[in-house]
Design a protein that fits this description.
The protein is of the alpha/beta class. It is 36% helix and 23% strand. It has 14 helices and 21 strands. The strands form six sheets. Strands 2-1-3-4-5-6 form a six-stranded parallel sheet, sandwiched between helices. Strands 17-18-19-21-20 form a five-stranded mixed barrel. Helix 8 runs parallel beside helix 9 and helix 12 packs parallel to helix 13. The longest helix is centred in the last third of the chain and has 25 residues. It binds 5'-deoxyadenosine and iron/sulfur cluster. The site of 5'-deoxyadenosine has 12 residues, from strand 15.
């Protein structure tokens, strides 16, 4: 009988991708995924270390899991408990100390070694810790077969970060920038499409710093840029949509902007974190771009693809942020407009330069600023969603809706769209007329043509 594997994923899309690949590594060992931790033979927490709250969640979840592990032990069963992701990488020893009932701690770069770790954890009741940055690439050792859950898939093309924004733990938890060879990326893209993917999102902590080894005989230099990869991936039959995330504004080059003009399959939605709207703060963050450079970049992208919609990340209350700096952030948001955004209170992370900066901002003031910024950003999202009413747009219906008889999917702009439609349309791109727009999603009706095509 298959052993049950439960993976709980926190944080970014890279973690979602890693969790899928971890499940693939464990499948040959007899583990099949389950939605519930209760009664599972192995539970893995794939964790996030970006803000203090995210990291602390792990310990409270571990406390709950301990009870389930103990309950199973009383019935002579074993729950193998593992922690991976950025908390494991950043404070693996601490996890084992604070939660001694944890069996395995492994970093995001070592999960291809899971078969050995599982064997080791089973042999002795020993704790296993593997948070190396190994010389070999995990990608070469992972199973080639890819399973696709739904029509939209993630594909990691780049990992790590050399940018060292002064608030951020990622350069420490994910290590130096690494780009996968272009031939490997294209092969994985083809396998994903073969397994049913219609949309692929290229992932990387700094996805646009991608510079992967060119396939042999491909011409045009020893390395491919992200732009070149997009142009080539667009040639894959059956692949309908391409996205990429997350981008670093200072490294968006003209070729990439051109790709937005030339590649129809490249969706007109871009997540481009700006973090703040004040040059003083951007400099203290070590972001390598000014406010004007960001504005100019947004203009250039929109000149290439007029319907391009932007989303962004913001941090409020960075050390030294004055009320004036914060007003400048609001001004930038008003001018550029974002259809979606993630905004956070600055969270001091041990070991990062900003944690030791002077003039840390009071928590209550951070909360006030965050509320004001979010009110503005939410209004922009709602505005855009309402402006979509009456428009017809292709929607990739990749899941069932909450209510029976409904399907849901994503618009080109990543909006969640809910449609009354029969299951035959599942995993297809369907023309939808939008009939209403709320803060979080759109409601639409599927074009009758699509229904007939399927009958
Ligand atoms: N505090 C608050 N937000 C942070 N982010 C990264 N580090 C921190 C921090 N220390 C945010 C940035 C980044 C997003 C993924 O998380 O906005 O783009
Ligand atoms: Fe963190 Fe900056 Fe690297 Fe993004 S670019 S992962 S915010 S250090």
């Amino acid at each position: 009988m298959a052993k049950k594997l439960h993976i709980k994923t926190y944080g970014c899309q890279m973690n979602v991708y890693d969790s899928e690949r971890i499940a693939e590594v464990l499948r040959p060992l007899g583990y099949a995924p389950t939605d519930r931790a209760e009664g599972a033979d192995m539970v893995i927490l794939n964790t996030c270390h970006i803000r203090e709250k995210a990291a602390e969640k792990v310990y409270s979840e571990l406390g709950r899991l301990r009870l389930q592990k103990d309950a199973m032990a009383e019935h002579g069963q074993r729950m193998v408990l593992a922690v991976t992701g950025c908390v494991a990488q950043a404070e693996g020893e601490e996890v084992l100390k604070r939660a001694p009932f944890v069996d395995m701690v492994f970093g995001p770069q070592t999960y291809h070694r899971l078969p050995q770790m599982v064997a080791e954890a089973a042999r002795a009741a020993n704790q296993v810790l593997d948070t190396d940055f190994p010389a070999e690439s995990k990608f070469d050792a992972l199973p080639q077969e890819r399973n696709v859950d739904g029509a939209a898939a993630f594909l990691a093309i780049q990992e790590g970060c050399d940018k060292f924004c002064t608030y951020c733990v990622v350069p420490y938890t994910r290590g130096a920038e690494y780009s996968r060879p272009a031939a490997d990326v294209l092969a994985e893209a083809r396998r994903l499409v073969g397994a049913g993917a219609r949309e692929i999102t290229f992932l990387g902590q700094n996805v646009n710093s991608y510079h992967g080894e060119a396939p042999s005989g491909s011409g045009g230099g020893a390395e491919w840029s992200l732009a070149r990869l997009i142009f080539e991936a667009a040639e894959i039959d059956g692949l309908e949509r391409i996205r990429y995330t997350t981008s670093y504004p200072a490294e968006v080059d003209d070729d990439l902007i051109q790709a937005h003009a030339d590649v129809d399959k490249l969706m007109p939605y871009l997540h481009l974190p700006v973090q703040a709207g004040s040059n003083r703060i951007l400099q203290a963050m070590n972001r390598n771009h000014t406010v004007d450079a960001y504005r100019a970049l947004a203009d250039k992208l929109r000149a290439a693809r007029p319907d391009l919609a932007l989303s962004s990340d913001f941090i409020v209350g960075f050390p030294g942020e004055t009320d004036r700096d914060f007003r400048d952030t609001l001004k930038l948001v008003e001018d550029v407009t974002f259809i979606q955004a993630y905004s956070f209170k600055y969270s001091a992370r041990p070991g990062t330069p900003a944690a030791n900066m002077e003039f840390q901002v009071d928590e209550a003031l951070k909360a006030e600023r965050l509320a004001e910024l979010q009110a503005l950003l939410n209004a922009q999202t709602l505005n855009f969603n309402k402006a979509c009413v009456g428009r017809r747009m292709p929607v990739l219906l990749d899941r069932t809706g909450k209510k029976p008889g409904q399907l849901a999917g994503r618009s080109p702009y990543m909006q969640a769209v809910v449609v009354d439609a029969s299951e035959e349309l599942l995993n297809r791109t369907v023309d939808v007329t939008i009939i209403s727009g709320g803060p979080n999603s759109l409601l639409g009706t599927a074009d009758p043509k699509n229904q007939k095509a399927c009958a």
